[in-house]
């Protein structure tokens, strides 16, 4: 099978397109013939050796996969044979086939493409968990999404709109802001401007926002927290800017607001059954057309290094997906 391999940490351009032996399933595993693989910022950091946990070399990058089950290991449910599934893996998605535990495979709704499924689980589960469990988002509230044109931000826009919120997207370029509005945001602002907080005033009636969805961090976080209305919630999702902010806690006191960490991965590791209702809700919404998880673009396998570089440079719009079929 063809696969992208990381032989040493560094620039994604050093990744190699290689031939590897097909995997064999162990007990409880299935082999998935990959139809699409989703890529995210963390995948790019892993290749660069800049993530907090290093993957042993050499390895095949990619942590989100969608495809069809083509082989079963001992004890794997026979009902999965031939079924379309999506799954997560610590690595290995950028390969023509991958062996994964059967219990981690999620059926793909008939109406969902492999490309949509490949980029679905992480960003959409994080958004729904963040808004529903952590942020207690109510219909009619206003959400400010930072980094709105990335895969995480686009999913947040989609979920917030499905929950009845008004969404203000914050992004760095006109192209990204237009993409965020096309994804469903009601308004978009330029958060590279020194006084970008002022642009919120006419959009909120000087009332400020109820929730901030923050996968960016850096200098933007404190300003975004200052945009919260009393009783607001600042959802900490990640630090794509590369810098972990230091928030003056007097702001939380004076605004009577909450700063809440949204660690969906940690949540399901501690409570594995908790993800079942999340996924049931999300797949039902996707089937009903309530959310729209189709990726912004898909690319052939040989373009994966360039896609990862754009993610590392924060120059990507939407969730990029690698396709394994014409």
């Amino acid at each position: 099978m063809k696969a992208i391999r990381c032989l040493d940490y560094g620039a994604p351009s050093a990744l190699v397109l290689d031939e590897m032996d097909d995997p064999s399933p162990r007990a409880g595993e299935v082999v998935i013939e990959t139809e699409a693989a989703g890529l995210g910022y963390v995948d790019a950091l892993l290749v660069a050796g800049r993530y907090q946990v290093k993957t042993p070399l050499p390895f095949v990058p990619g942590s989100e996969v969608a495809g069809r089950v083509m082989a079963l290991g001992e004890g794997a449910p026979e009902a999965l044979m031939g079924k379309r599934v999506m799954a997560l893996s610590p690595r290995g998605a950028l390969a023509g086939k991958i062996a994964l535990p059967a219990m981690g495979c999620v059926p793909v709704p008939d109406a969902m493409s492999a490309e949509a499924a490949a980029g679905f689980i992480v960003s959409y589960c994080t958004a729904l968990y963040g808004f529903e469990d952590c942020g207690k988002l109510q219909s009619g509230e206003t959400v400010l999404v930072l980094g709105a044109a990335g895969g995480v931000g686009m999913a947040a826009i989609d979920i917030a709109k499905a929950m009845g919120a008004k969404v203000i997207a914050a992004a760095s370029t006109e192209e990204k802001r237009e993409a965020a509005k096309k994804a469903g945001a009601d308004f978009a602002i330029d958060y590279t401007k020194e006084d970008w907080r002022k642009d919120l005033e006419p959009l909120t009636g000087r009332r400020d926002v109820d929730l901030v969805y923050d996968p960016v961090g850096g200098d933007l976080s404190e300003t975004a927290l200052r945009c919260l209305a009393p009783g607001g919630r600042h959802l900490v999702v990640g630090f794509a800017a590369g810098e972990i902010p230091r928030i003056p806690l007097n702001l939380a006191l004076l605004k009577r607001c909450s700063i809440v960490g949204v660690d969906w991965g940690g949540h399901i590791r501690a409570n594995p059954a908790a993800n079942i209702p999340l996924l049931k809700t999300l797949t039902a919404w996707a089937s009903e057309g309530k959310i729209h998880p189709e990726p912004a673009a898909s690319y052939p396998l040989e373009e994966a290094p360039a896609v990862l570089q754009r993610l590392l440079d924060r120059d990507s719009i939407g969730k990029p997906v690698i396709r394994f079929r014409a």
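The chain has eleven helices and 15 strands. The chain has a mean pLDDT of 95.
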